[in-house]
Amino acid sequence: MKRSIEAMRRQDLIEAAYRTFVEHGIGGTTVARIGKTAGMSHGLVNYYFKSKSELLNAVVRYANRTIMEDVREKLRYATSHYSRIMAIIDGHFPEKSYERTTANAWISLYAATPKMREFERVHNIYYRRLHSNLVYSLRHFMSDDVAHEAAFGISVMIDGLWTRCGMSRETVRPEEAKRVTRHYFHSLLPDGMYDTRDTRQMFETRHTSE
Any idea which residues the entry calls the DNA-binding region (predicted)? Predict the structure, then answer.
């Protein structure tokens, strides 16, 4: 029971730290603010996490996990390699979090990554997983070499649109970000392979998952 309660308290603190991170960025995510958000004293925060860096590392893992959960949920309904790629793209622009405040928090995290090896390690795991998921389906439409290049391009497009969302005073809506990234993917396909108006249904059916 003690272990269960401790795990719950740690999770509460991680979620409070994530909310603090979204509101204040990684630099403003202090132990005092996290404790206030969680309704816990400074001493309790230090009891469950021995250092601020340990807690921030947990926040980074949690932040990446929230994105991947959206992707996994959409992948559950994917029935073809094409729809898998669409699910991965769409899952990276969730309605509830693709907005300026959250995007700015991510930008602050990217900026801190070169100085924090654990941040870099977590990001590398995330990018390898994204790359692998994309290549798995992209290679059904193009050669392996091109599939790897396309996967890299899509991941860069995703990062760029999150950065634009954080930096632009004009709202970048999730549907706009999805549409731009889909268009980039379609531009990589051989000429005539995909027509958004006439052959989408046939295209999706033909490239079924294996």
Answer: 30-49
Q: How far is CA 86 from the centre of its chain?
A: 14
What one-letter code names the amino acid at 13?
A: L
Instruction: Give me the tens of pLDDT residue by residue for the chain, a chain 210 residues long.
Output: 455 888 888 999 999 999 999 999 988 999 999 999 999 998 888 888 888 888 888 888 888 888 889 999 999 999 999 999 999 999 999 998 999 999 999 999 888 888 888 888 888 999 999 999 999 999 999 999 999 999 999 999 999 999 999 998 788 899 999 999 999 999 998 875 655 544 454 455 445 554
96 with 168, same domain: the answer is yes
Task: Determine the structural domain holding residue 81 and report its residue range.
Answer: 53-206
Number of domains in the chain: 2
Cα 210 from Cα 204, distance rounded (Å): 13
Residue 142 and residue 124: Cα distance in Å, rounded?
25
